[in-house]
């Protein structure tokens, strides 16, 4: 198998590290390239044993998959590199938020099968949620799904649903991290020093995550098990509801999904 990544940043590295650690590919199956010779990419070569090249012809020769893992704004430059050497057998897989299949087809000037995936950086710990949608001619889907399930779970969606998946799970962990960040800062307001606030928050989050993983209870039942009548938790939850937490989250998710739609419209102009 030959899998070529254009881009070796946060998302690409979470994917290829996930695939290698879970042994669905050999490090020698992975080929990386980036915009410039970067220390980071050489680190991956030395640490993991993956291939690194800046020769597009060599990279794309006999490739089974090419993974588009740059920012959407860099895609025209990436497409220029790929276009001359893309072989008919190579399946194109994009992780770029908001870049539509028809745009990828147009920029690459190709009829090759194209899939869009929307993973998240939890791929590093095998817990990415991967939205996936395909061009009609992407018929051989099982192999791609197997590759993706090595670093998480896969949900097949229509391309128009990608905006919501991008908001919900592509960006979603950043929203949760931000809440943890704000929680730690709020503990400092309560009187803990920074080290204590980070220690307490980190262990709280790890413990809650493990409870979600191990327990069969719903989020709501887990919460209710902590909430005594007229107790401290109830007082805190009432305050949280009073501030309109759900409304804040709906606004957050709508903003992210709308930005994904905007990105897909920008490219049509
Ligand atoms: N970071 C995340 O959590 C997620 C990111 N994505 C998508 O993944 C893509 C990459 O995001 P990140 O990894 O966070 O960005 P990043 O900035 O960490 O990495 C971007 C990579 O693209 C490379 N690149 C730029 N121009 C290039 C060119 N002309 N030729 C070859 N490589 C080139 C850069 O050298 C770099 O390695 C974005 O399109 C984003 O929408 C999707 C899901 C989650
Ligand atoms: O912020 C972004 O645009 C990318 C897409 C999903 C997560 N990160």
UniProtKB/TrEMBL annotation:
Query: By its UniProt entry, which Gene3D superfamilies does this protein fall under?
Result: NAD(P)-binding Rossmann-like Domain, ProC C-terminal domain-like
Q: Name one GO biological process term.
A: L-proline biosynthetic process
* Catalytic activity, as annotated: L-proline + NAD(+) = (S)-1-pyrroline-5-carboxylate + NADH + 2 H(+); L-proline + NADP(+) = (S)-1-pyrroline-5-carboxylate + NADPH + 2 H(+)
Q: Name one GO molecular function term.
A: pyrroline-5-carboxylate reductase activity
Q: Name one Pfam family in it.
A: F420_oxidored
* E.C. no: 1.5.1.2
Subcellular location, record wording: Cytoplasm
Q: Where is the Pyrroline-5-carboxylate reductase dimerisation domain?
A: 159-263
UniProt entry keywords in alphabetical sequence = Amino-acid biosynthesis, Cytoplasm, NADP, Oxidoreductase, Proline biosynthesis
Signal peptide bounds:
none
Q: Which residues form the Pyrroline-5-carboxylate reductase catalytic N-terminal domain?
A: 2-98
InterPro entries documented for this protein? 6-PGluconate_DH-like_C_sf, NAD(P)-bd_dom_sf, P5C_Rdtase_cat_N, P5CR_dimer, Pyrroline-COOH_reductase
Q: Where does NADP(+) bind?
A: 34, 69-72
Annotated metabolic or biological route of this protein = Amino-acid biosynthesis; L-proline biosynthesis; L-proline from L-glutamate 5-semialdehyde: step 1/1
Task: Tell me which GO cellular component terms the UniProt record holds.
Answer: cytoplasm
Q: What class of enzyme is it?
A: oxidoreductase
Per the entry, what this protein does is: Catalyzes the reduction of 1-pyrroline-5-carboxylate (PCA) to L-proline.
Database matches in HAMAP family: P5C_reductase
Record's family? Belongs to the pyrroline-5-carboxylate reductase family.
What this protein is called in its record is: Pyrroline-5-carboxylate reductase
Where does this protein come from, organism-wise?
Answer: Salinicoccus kekensis
């Amino acid at each position: 198998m030959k899998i070529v990544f254009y881009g070796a940043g946060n998302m690409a590295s979470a994917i290829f590290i996930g695939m290698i650690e879970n042994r669905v590919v050999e490090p020698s199956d992975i080929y990386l390239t980036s915009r410039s010779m970067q220390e980071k990419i050489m680190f991956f070569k030395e640490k993991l044993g993956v291939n690194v090249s800046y020769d597009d012809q060599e990279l794309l020769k006999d490739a089974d998959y090419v993974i588009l893992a740059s920012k959407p704004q860099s895609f025209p430059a990436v497409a220029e590199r790929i276009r001359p050497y893309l072989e008919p057998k190579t399946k194109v897989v994009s992780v770029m938020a908001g870049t539509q299949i028809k745009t990828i087809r147009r920029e690459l000037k190709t009829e090759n099968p194209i899939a869009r995936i929307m993973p998240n950086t939890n791929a590093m710990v095998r817990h990415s949620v991967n939205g996936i949608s395909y061009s009609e001619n992407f018929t051989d889907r099982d192999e791609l799904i197997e590759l993706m399930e090595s670093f998480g779970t896969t949900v097949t969606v229509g391309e128009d649903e990608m905006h919501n998946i991008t908001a919900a799970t592509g960006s979603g962990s950043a929203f949760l991290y931000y809440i943890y960040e704000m929680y730690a800062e709020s503990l400092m307001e309560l009187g803990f020093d920074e080290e204590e606030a980070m220690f307490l928050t980190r262990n709280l989050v790890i413990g809650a995550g493990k409870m979600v993983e191990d327990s069969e209870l719903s989020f709501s039942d887990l919460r209710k098990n902590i909430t005594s009548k007229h107790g401290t938790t109830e007082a805190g939850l009432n305050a949280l509801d009073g501030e309109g937490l759900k409304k804040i989250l709906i606004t957050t998710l709508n903003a992210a999904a709308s930005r994904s739609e905007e990105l897909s419209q920008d490219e049509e102009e």
